[in-house]
Amino acid sequence: IIEHKLNRVIVASCSPRTHEPLFRSICQEAGINPYLFEMVNIRDQDSWVHMKEPEKGTDKAKDLIRMSVHKAALLEPLEKIKVAITHSAVVIGGGIAGMTAALNLGNQGFKISLIEKESDLGGLLKSLNKVFPSNEDASNLLENIEIIESHDNITIFKSSIIEKVSGFVGNYKVVIKQNKKTIDIDAGVIIVATGAIPLSPEGYFGYDKKNIISQLDLESLLKNDQVKANNITMILCVGCRNEERRYCSNI
């Protein structure tokens, strides 16, 4: 670096997770701002991916390095600064994951804003009979709702949606809309626990016919002790692994 009077450094090798701090410290020792360094991961993202396709791997490596060179040319020196952080959190989603996160942080003394788009907390948990792997009654977990609603450190915003999120880690500003009212919330961190929407499998395997139900429908019957069938066949992965949804049990 010193010999050639370099003002940018690019390393094409492995993952920045393991080696970027090392190379940045070397740049700093040699007199270059550490943020004028760029790392190209041609191992994890290239050679390992194209292990049996060396020509494609080489072409991809050239492209990755070429892009990195253009990016490095636009880098600006940066300096570390200390900023005050907001000691509170926004939790998006009032299902079991969101409630658990809010309760854990609230018990540690942090102020929590729990955002739920529905009029009640609980999410899909309200539709379940038992939970895996403990086989515990889902209703037992719903008892936390009363604790959360009376918790001094937790403010709940029901029937609310996120309008805008701005800022950075430690200092976020979240704008929510509750009915027709807009509310600004400051937070140091945001936890996204928005859950999922079950697929209603209309048109699949006779779903609209008698005795053909979804697993969520079955949960409701089990919960109310209304299952009368002796033999049950379960067809899994309905509505996925197709053109509309290529994934299965995945995000």
UniProtKB/TrEMBL annotation:
One of its GO terms (molecular function) is 4 iron, 4 sulfur cluster binding. SUPFAM superfamilies: FAD/NAD(P)-binding domain. This is FAD/NAD(P)-binding domain-containing protein. Keywords: 4Fe-4S, Iron, Iron-sulfur, Metal-binding, Oxidoreductase. Residues 89-222 form the FAD/NAD(P)-binding domain.
